[in-house]
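Loading example: each entry is read as two labelled lines plus one structure line.
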Amino acid sequence: MFLNIIVTVLRETLEAGVLISLLLSVGHSHNFSAFWIVPSITVGVFGAFFYAINLGYISDWAGYVGQELFNASLHFSIFIVLALIISVLEKPLLIKTQTLKIFLSIVAALAFVREGGELFVFYSGYIQNSNILLGAIASGVIGLSIGASVGALFYYLITTMPAHYSAKLRMLMFYFLSAGMALQGAKLLIQADWLPSYQPLWDTNQWLPENSFVGQLVYAVFAYEATPSIIEVTFYVCAVCIIFSLRFRNKVYVHSEE
Amino acid sequence: MGRLINNLISWPLLIISCVLSYNVIAGDRPVFVLKIKDHLFYPSEIEVPARQKIKLLVINEDPTAEEFESYKLNREKIILGNRRAIIFIGPLKSGSYPFFGEFNMSTAQGTLIAK
């Protein structure tokens, strides 16, 4: 049972861990303190708690699909703010540190609400059972530590490589993570029957099972889906195109400023 | 920045309009009931029609929450204790699709069979 708890907590923290490490690496590359993460975590944890205690009401919205709609809006919001971050990062001469900090804080807080909310609900089941509560918390700490370690590994990988390569890798990861948010939002709208669903375009479970550790890691970075539908793939591609067009537009803008 | 924010608002608005239009034209779906009791699914095997979208009504009779999850169905949803939830599934090809309760993986296991 405790192994299952480790796996559950790890799955929730892995995605947030990779995203937070990427956001922290942006601050590192622009030489500002990582203190911005403290109020962001505080707001995120309170938001997650508020989400968890109101999940019953949220779930009953719109014919019992409120949970999907709420989570999809979180994913699309993260996508929009990540696109704004990419846009700001593309203007190195015009970067306003305060604006960047605000965007980074919003993304981190929303990610905490999304992943932390599920963990609060998960642990609510153990609160009444004092016999296993301690073991469940210890298992959670192990899962959390593994997720945080993977995030730390990403952070040190990005921040210790030469600046030219780290900027490219960071931008690439921003692309994948933001497009992944759009894909996950689309997946939730399909589940809520707000978007049409079709049979999967392909099935790569034989090569890389989604439930394996590597599958979960690739899911955290690239939003890997072994059986995506055409709608999910369309959202992913459109998200990449939108960000790419913003990037191109900004490059033109920066050149004209020069 | 103003044009950028306009772009980032107009795209989601376009998507929301398409979504709402689809929601209006989508018809009723056949309903199948799945219960959760003592961290087990009842029935543990549930037969549904292939090539048709269905509505799975999940009723959690346990006092604690459960998360319905299936990698093959591409579905994930929390159902709080003593509450119910709707999950839309399919259209599916004929075959079997395992699902599980993420919060109680060792006991809550089931299979959806599309025929």
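The first strand of chain B starts at residue 31 and ends at 37.
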